[in-house]
Amino acid sequence: MSEAVPDPDPRQGLRRFWFRALVGLCAGLAAAAGVAAYLGISQRELIATIHGVAVEPLLLAAAGGLILMGLQALRWWLVMRPLLALTYGQAYRALMVGFAFNVLLPARGGDLLRVQYLGRRTGVSRAKLLGTEIVDFWSDKWGWVAAFPLVCLLGSPPAWLFRALLLIAAAVLGVGALLALMGSGLWRGPRTPAFLANLRDGFAVNHWKRLLAVETLVAPLPWLWETFVIALAGHALGLDLSPMQAFAALTAFNVATAVPSPGNAGSFEAGGTLALAAFGVPKETALAFIFLYHLTQIVPGFVGGVLVLAVEGQHIFGREGLFRLRRPELPLDPPVVPEPDPGQAHPTRQCTSTNPA
Q1: φ and ψ at 2, to 5 degrees?
Q2: Distance from first CA to last CA of the chain, Å, rounded?
Q3: Which domain holds residue 223?
């Protein structure tokens, strides 16, 4: 009789989770501390700058963050539609849940969690969902390339932004060519692993001509909208940022998110502060603004994701909830029929023999 293999201790998984989050957080804070030391930021002046903040532009930026999430959900919804029959409202709530966990998990782990629960709830292969998630990530970067010429109509970009354009455009073209190759019928064969085949199918669910047209129109919208939100939020500290300055700060803190910090803590502030300081913004004001703007984008999305979990957690993650801290009970086996003793007669035969004629 085989013994049941015990499940791994959930507490051990939580310890690994907190350890990775702590390592990522330390990396992000180290990046912010390095930038602060490099620029020679005064802590006293930084605190004084934060105390003189106008609240209204920050509240508008927080509301603008929810609209930004709606535009990102629209892009993701269009990418997912050929694979999943999700409504736009479901896509928005799913994106908000993933964002909430991105605040807690390093390296955008919330996006992978979104793939996990969509696969569980819909029965679609997680590899296919991962393929469409990669397509959405590619389309997001394509949106940056498409938005850049439009912003250039409103101002002259700095030299480093041109270099960022060449780097990101080369990455977009390279990844796009790889996705098109894997999504085509060239990589097909009986020896292809199932995971790779499903991943390739996730790339191929979208018609590439339609996807290119839709993403060229939709994918730039989040970048252009957030450029406007950053320029609006700058008035909280008396900054009159041009569209190009706001777009440069947006680009810088997105590049800095390569540091796998939970919620981009520290890395976000490091990249944005360097970009604004390069435009001549006082360094303490630049760091204070990027820190406050980061809060306006994190807090509403995180609270919204928690509310979605509180309302729909049972439907998303099942009856057991998201975190199962106690070990699940083993399923009940059907009653085992005892084997007859070879030294005794079969019960039915005994009953037959004692039955009177």
Answers
A1: -80, 150
A2: 43
A3: 17-317
